[in-house]
């Protein structure tokens, strides 16, 4: 497929130009997921990504949310935690958890420190797996770390853009009950 190069976009009018001709069926949790997503897309209310995540999670009956965050965004992680904990049981794991030394990976230290910790995205995922989270939010994880985290997370993982967080400080999320 080369949809990015297509100028016609007949798919929005129902044309199937893919190799997936038919038989694609959404059932069970996948059906509920796509229904919620389609509703969020079409209902016309302007929402933040965090609001969408909360509505999506609540609609699917999720009760436990995990936050895997980069230590550089500790303040933002606290804000997301404070907001989501109004509606969910929230668990959070910093990127340096169970850290080991950068030099042990054959990487030169970037600072003149006795110990320079490398991030541990697999450790973050395993700890949130132990907490039995239903959905995990990645907040500020660097490229590669986010990929490893998503690979090892048993719960679905979604990235929350850091750019939207300053607007949330005193937010009330309108979560569907």
Summary, kept brief:
By secondary structure, the protein is an alpha/beta fold. The chain has helices at 28-42, 49-59, 74-84, 121-130, 145-152; strands at 64-69, 89-94, 100-101, 117-118, 135-139, 157-159.
CATH topology: Rossmann fold
* CATH-derived architecture: 3-Layer(aba) Sandwich
Count of discrete structural domains: 1
Strand content is 5-15%
What is the CATH class designation? Alpha Beta
Strand order of the largest sheet: 2-1-5-6
Please state the CA-atom Rg, rounded to the nearest Å: 19 Å
Please give the share of residues in helix: 25-40%
Number of strands: 6
Give a quick account of the main beta sheet: strands, pairing sense, barrel closure. 4 strands, parallel
Overall average pLDDT: 88
Give the overall shape, derived from the CA principal axes: globular
CATH superfamily name?
Answer: Diphthamide synthesis DPH1/DPH2 domain 1
Judged by helices, strands and strand pairing, the structural class is alpha/beta
């Amino acid at each position: 497929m080369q949809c990015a190069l297509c100028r016609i976009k007949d798919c929005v009018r129902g044309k199937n130009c893919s190799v997936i001709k038919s038989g694609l069926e959404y059932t069970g949790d996948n059906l509920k997921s796509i229904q919620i997503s389609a509703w969020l897309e079409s209902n016309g209310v302007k929402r933040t990504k965090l609001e969408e995540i909360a509505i999506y999670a609540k609609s699917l009956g999720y009760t436990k949310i995990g936050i895997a965050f980069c230590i550089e965004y500790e303040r933002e992680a606290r804000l997301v935690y404070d907001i989501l904990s109004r509606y969910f049981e929230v668990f959070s794991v910093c990127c340096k958890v169970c850290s080991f030394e950068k030099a042990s990976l054959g990487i030169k230290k970037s600072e003149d420190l006795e110990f320079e910790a490398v991030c541990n995205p697999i450790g973050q995922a395993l700890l949130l797996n132990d907490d039995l989270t239903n959905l995990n939010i990645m907040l500020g994880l660097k490229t590669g770390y986010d990929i490893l985290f998503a690979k090892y997370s048993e719960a679905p993982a979604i990235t929350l853009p850091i750019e939207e967080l300053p607007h949330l400080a005193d937010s009330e999320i309108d979560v569907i009950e």
